[in-house]
Known about the structure:
By secondary structure, the chain is an alpha/beta fold. The protein has an eight-stranded mixed beta sheet with strand order 5-4-3-2-1-6-8-7, sandwiched between helices. It has a six-stranded mixed beta sheet with strand order 11-10-9-12-14-13, with helices on both faces. A hairpin with a 6-residue loop joins strand 3 and strand 4 (39-44). It contains 14 helices and 14 strands. The protein starts with a strand and ends with a helix. Helix 1 (59-71) crosses helix 3. It binds adenosine-5'-diphosphate.
Amino acid sequence: MIILVVNAGSSSLKYQLIDMKDESVIAKGNCDRIGIDGHLSHKTASGATIEEDCAFPTHAEAFERLVQALTTGECAVIKSMDEVSAVGHRVVQGAEIFTKTTLVTDEIIDKIDQLRELAPVHNHGHALAMWACRKILPDVPQVAVFDTAFHQTIPQKAFMYGFPYEDYETYHVRKYGFHGTSHRFVTAKLAEIMGKDLKDLKVISCHLGNGSSITAVQNGQSIDTTMGFTPLDGVLMGTRCGAVDPSAVTYVAGKHGFDVAQMDSYMNKKSGLLGISGKSSDFRDITAASESGDKRATLAKDMLVYDIKKDIGAYAAIMNGLDAVIFTGGIGENAPNCREEVCTNMEYLGIKIDKEVNDFKGQLRKISTPDSKVEVWVIPTNEELLIARDTLAIINQK
Ligand code: ADP
């Protein structure tokens, strides 16, 4: 069985073709600059590549071109799209409507599109990709996998904001949480490698990348997470400020004379590691600058580490204990210095890591010492694979 996984944004459409026999990636690529001009990057498992400027006025032309790349020419990996059993779409915002992976119908696409107010950059792009897929592959089932779905188990006392209740009812203002597919993937993997049922574990999953979120998982369910109404809340990120006093937002907007869109851009694109260091949003650059004595880069790194430590402490408190901590995402998987600093002076929580064992990048590995009460694991995430697995499970139910 072959599944096509699609991750569409407003101007890009990333894809992976996955053979579910051995869960291997047969080909992957990105249709970029949709609605601007258009560029295709395509790569097969055997190393054949396409880099080509194309005309992508809409998602439909992009989808047509990716079908062509997969089925014709030197980079073809399948004879026709008849070999593709289903298409699985990543959807950022499912709000309170979508609590689990869902088979896509016309009505579902409309509902996903209607949620665009809650995810302006993403949901409309997802809907456009689904319509394009419906037009070009009308007989292939489509499935939607939601970033927010895993967090729909968070109790109301944790997802509410202290605004007047009516605004939750009228405008749906609440914590939704994101990265759900990643947190679900790594916590399931943890239970598998520990040989335990996830329901019996208290876990804190730290997904640290350009965007970062930390999630508490108890009884196999997300019970709290650091991202909120949007992916801006929580720890300091590459270019996002993370949690701040809301009054600081209105104050800064007033001082700069920013309108709502300008303030949004300031918090999402000019803040975080970039804003603090004044140098880069990339943790590799921050680490290098810090090692060569740059004080603001060191401050940016220290702020991120501090936020993560604080959230681990908070989530251990609400779970009344802790069995395991997971590091994943670009920073979590590849930055030993970040992991080490987070786990230093955490003995009171039962966390002890082996610094030598921790000194590596990008593999699945336990980094806690044998006498550490809490197991600490680095688990590479694979959101596309979980989307493909979910998609297969849904079409097998049909
Ligand atoms: P996204 O949230 O966009 O998916 P990623 O999960 O790919 O991002 O994470 C990107 C972050 O991971 C960047 O800050 C990058 O510097 C960091 N990163 C990637 N590789 C390394 C590495 N070898 N060492 C340290 N940091 C790394």
